[in-house]
Amino acid sequence: MSPEVPPPTRRALLRAGACGLLGVAAGGCGFMPAKAPDEKDLAPVRARVDGDLVYFNWADYVDPSVFKGFEKEYGVKVVQSNFDSMEGMVAKLNAGNRYDIVFPSAKWAQRLVRGGRLRRIDHSQLPHTKNVFGAYPYFADPWYDPGSAHTVPFTAYKTGIGWRRDRIGDLTDSWRDLWSDKARGKVFLLDDRDEVLGMGALELGLDVSTGDPAALKRVTSLLGTLRPRLRGFSSDSYNNLLNGNAFITQAWSGDMAAMLNQAKDPSVFGFQAPKEGTPINSDCYAIPWNARHPGTAMLFIDYMLRPENVKKNIEYIGYPMPVAGTEKVYAELVRPFPECLVTEADLKADLFFRNGDRAAEDARDAAWTRVKAG
Ligand code: N2P
Question: Whose CA is nearest to atom 6 of ligand 1?
């Protein structure tokens, strides 16, 4: 899992620096491609081997045996590197690194699409997408990418609370449980701006994506009362709970399902989707405009959507995938943690994080800085 992607040239870095500023001036989407992509960079390509697959994703977010199968069948290597936040992923793209396939969450997919950063995907090249778009109307035309013209959904999840029953007993189905006195000093929050601010907003009955300075002030003062009880910010909820560093943690539902799968005694752990509401999200497949091997990326997406591979991935990573015929696999996996299920109603309840305008995003950055500084 080391970064084997060639480092960007100095020129690319300089351009990326300048682009960051221009991106701000250009109206808030935050992207200003180094060289304006032309139609040829954005046009769909055929699914065919055109080189090794340069893959950029969260760690452990695909079953390794699926990579092996893909390499063997198509005679290519999967050159893997990982990020641990969306901001980190986008910083690499902005710095000029070139990947064939990346996995943005919904709002980040929308930013990349709006910034002209993603190649269009011709669904007719990917026969297995019929199990996705034919069966899940939500994803045939999602708000973040109309017509799924540049993306294919990979996973769905919500954000809740994972905890150790053996350490702190039962919870009350509220985000307030993070303040439990029994967990003091053993509490983790996700290392994620939107998730942390969103949790505070839900607790206060505010919009999860609020960029209003007065609302954010209320959120940061609430979070200030949690700050001294925290052990830290980490998106590795799975390991923090398993190794006991966390008694309680904000967590993505899928990571908790995967953990359950690994735990010697699953009854020690719990996952709840708090009653005040849970952010909902989806990660998707996307092909950056400057990918060197977009044809191989197309083949990879379709390979991942083969039913046997969807099954392997669901069981390995713990996240449900909107692919017809695999629903039972997930329901079976999360029988002890039914709150991990993501329904069409959850999607429509629409607690997705949304992109704000420049001022709103800046206000959220500033609020996050205050929360982290304590
Ligand atoms: C990390 C997987 C993160 C997915 N294990 C949430 N976007």
Answer: 252
